[in-house]
């Protein structure tokens, strides 16, 4: 895909602008991540969730909370852990469900990602235990 590397970055228009109508922009990666580059369950699309949007000709889906949590565990930084806590508050998962997802997860063959995933597991399990008590 060499042709993608030569293109200029894509942009999405933001929602704010100044008095002259200049729109703030943010960069969007040229290529989305491939499944082989993220932590996710095999067959994740079987559990995807349809978003209820007022679109007539387009259906939009997102990965299930379990798979979103797995992808966030690849970095495990403070923001990702906060996001995981939010996801668990919205859609509580048991420690058993999470442990099964950890065992089934397809993990990229990158030692740093694998290590961060292992380190994040007890933190996520503790969050799940806390979320189920609330």
- How many distinct folded domains? 1
Range of helix content: 40-55%
Strand arrangement, major sheet: 1-2
Strand content: 5-15%
The assembly state of the depicted protein chains is single chain
Give the strand tally: 4
Low-confidence region ranges: 1-30
Discrete helix count: 5
The helix/strand order is: HEEEEHHHH
Largest sheet: number of strands, sense, barrel closure: 2 strands, antiparallel
Rg, alpha carbons: 18 Å
Q: Structural class, from helix and strand content?
A: alpha+beta
> Globular, elongated, flat, extended or rod-shaped: what is the shape?
globular
Beginning-to-end CA distance, first to last residue:
48 Å
Nearest-integer average pLDDT: 80
Topology diagram in text:
Blueprint: H1 2-6, E1 10-17, E2 23-28, E3 49-51, E4 60-62, H2 65-72, H3 78-90, H4 95-104, H5 111-133
Antiparallel strand pairs: 1-2, 3-4
Helix pairs in contact: 2-3, 3-5, 4-5
């Amino acid at each position: 895909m060499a042709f993608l590397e030569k293109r200029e970055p894509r942009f999405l228009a933001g929602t704010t602008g100044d008095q002259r109508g200049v729109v703030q922009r943010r960069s969007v990666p040229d290529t989305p991540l491939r499944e082989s580059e993220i932590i996710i369950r095999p067959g994740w699309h079987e559990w995807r969730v349809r978003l209820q949007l007022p679109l007539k000709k387009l259906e939009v889906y997102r990965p299930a909370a379990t798979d979103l949590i797995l992808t966030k565990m690849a970095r495990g930084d403070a923001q990702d852990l906060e996001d995981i806590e939010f996801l668990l508050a919205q859609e509580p998962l048991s420690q058993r469900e999470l442990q099964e997802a950890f065992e089934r997860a397809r993990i990229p063959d990158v030692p740093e990602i694998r290590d961060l995933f292992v380190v994040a597991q007890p933190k996520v399990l503790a969050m799940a235990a806390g979320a189920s008590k609330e």
